[in-house]
Amino acid sequence: MMFMKKILHSFRRSISAMSFVWSRELRTALRDEAVLIFIVIVPLGYPLLYSFIYNNEVAHDVPVAVIDDSGTSLSRKYIRLCDATENVRVASRCADFEEARELMRRHKVYGVVHIPRDFSSNLNQGRQTHVTAFCDASSLLYYKAISLATINVSLEMNADIKLHRARNITARQDEITSAPLRYEEVNIFNPATGMATFLLPAVLMMILQQTMMLGIGVTAGTMKERHTFRLYRPFAPGFAGAATITAARALIYVAVYAVISMYVLGMVPLMFRFTHIGHFTDIALFMLPYLTAVAFFSITFSYFIRTRESCMLLIVYLSLIFLFVSGISWPGSAVPPFWKYMSYLIPSTFGINGFVKLNSEGARLFQVAFEYRALWLQAIFYFVTACVVTHYDIKADCRSFVRAKGQCGNACGE
Predict the structure, then answer these.
(1) Which of 227, 275, 333, 367 has the fewest CB atoms inside 10 Å of its own CB, making it the most exposed?
(2) Which of residues 21 and 374 earns the better pLDDT score?
(3) Nearest of 64, 79, 215, 59 to residue 140 by alpha carbon
(4) What are phi and psi of 328, to 5 degrees?
(5) What gap in Å lies between CA 356 and CA 379, rounded to an integer?
(6) Lowest-pLDDT range, 75-84, 289-298, 331-340?
(7) What does DSSP assign to residue 413?
(8) Where are the beta strands (DSSP E) in 334-380?
């Protein structure tokens, strides 16, 4: 009987503690414009901004300059074929490299195609000739467009020259002569090879982590500045009390971001018609450990935040590093071992890779079992660390409040 009473007493105490934490956290968040911006406005606006920027997927009609030193029908045909592609647009015909270089310096063009003087004579005499393409490599999209256009036109003209010299009789002979080795290119999961389909899923998952970290960090910094962590002292007599407070704080943010995730990961890709072939149930089940791990990770990280301003400096800077080491923007096999092992401590690493497989590649939940289990392990690990730092934050806030106000121990519920 006494055992049941202790259980009921502990249960009532936990419910009371969770209710108090929820009311305090919600009151702090609703009255703080910065927290509202980070957990509501930014998740709503950021995805739209990135989606508008990358909505074109690929670069079309990149302006290029042409230097035609040959001035023959074959060189003009090469220029017409380049201009007819969807990748580049012949914006200027220059007399020499100095004129073309000036256009590139002024960003009027992003590439130069040079046709040498002996272009046609070499071809007519059965000798190999060259066409030189200078690309602005500061933008990989421009580089890719100009390279594809010049290569495809060269391959097409090569096939025509082979047919002209072969003098075949049948169409089948022409087909074999022009393409002895036939190949077919299939771009899996990203038909347009576009930047948005490649990058946006990772960015959207990073936005969820970044904004939650900012919201929890600003809240923690505010509570430390105002000495309101001490108000949790009556509900945290030990590790069990700290665990209750930590779970209550995390539950608020997980619930809020469960709704935000439906907009960020569901509605935004549909609005902009990005690749979205995942199964809703699998993605929802995958997001549960991800949001939980991020919440506990953010609470643990907030221990190092002493003021509201330091939160912005730390988290915004680190988010770019988190994206790089995730293995999406830069191949995971090329990431140095130290940073690769460090990335295993960050929820976004497994969250991004798992979500890309589910959303863009149509994988099922059992096919991302490694990432799914890793997120649950992170959630458990960071729950323990979050409980520890919450316990120390409460004790430290009580001591600092006593020193600052000159109050007795009863001010902290002791």
Answers:
(1) 333
(2) 374
(3) 59
(4) -100, -60
(5) 20
(6) 331-340
(7) T
(8) none
Gap between the Cα atoms of 294 and 290, Å rounded: 6
Residue 342: φ, ψ to 5°: -65, -35
Q: In sequence order, which ranges of 32-112 are alpha helices (DSSP H)?
A: 33-36, 42-53, 73-84, 97-105
Paired tokens of 47: 């995805």
Question: How many helices (H) and strands (E) in the chain?
Answer: 16, 4
- The residue with tokens 């047919």 is 163
Query: Strand, coil or helix: what is 65?
Result: strand
Token pair of 410 as six digits: 């009863």
Under 8 Å between Cβ of 173 and 166: yes
pTM of the model: 0.80
Chain-centroid distance of CA 314 in Å reads: 18
CB atoms under 10 Å from CB of 176, counted, come to 13
Q: 143 and 62 in contact (C-beta within 8 Å)?
A: no
181: amino acid identity, one letter: L
- Cα atoms in the 13 Å half-sphere on the side-chain side of 30: 8
For residue 411, pLDDT beyond 70: no
The answer to whether 49 touches 125, Cβ cutoff 8 Å, is no
Bridging pattern class, strands 111-115 and 62-68: parallel
Q: Where do we find the tokens 């991800």?
A: 290
Q: E strand or H helix at 252, and its extent?
A: helix 239-261
- The residues pairing with 66 across neighbouring beta strands, listed in sequence order, are 93, 113
Cα–Cα dist 237/10, whole Å: 12
Paired with 64 in beta bridges are 90
Cα–Cα distance, 173 to 160 (Å, whole number): 13
CB of 58 closer than 8 Å to CB of 192: yes
CA-based torsion, 224, 229, 231, 237: positive or negative:
negative
Residue 359 CA to residue 293 CA, distance in Å, equals 20
Instruction: Answer whether 277's CB lies under 8 Å from 360's CB.
Output: yes
CB 120 within 8 A of CB 128: no
Strand partners for 135: 111
Which residue, 222, 207, 294, is CA-closest to 253?
294
Centroid of chain to Cα 95 = 44
Given a contact cutoff of 8 angstroms between Cβ atoms, the answer to whether 83 and 89 are in contact is yes
Q: What is the pLDDT of residues 277-330, one digit of tens each?
A: 888 999 999 999 999 999 999 999 988 888 877 777 788 788 888 988 888 877
The span from the CA of 51 to the CA of 283, in Å, is 20
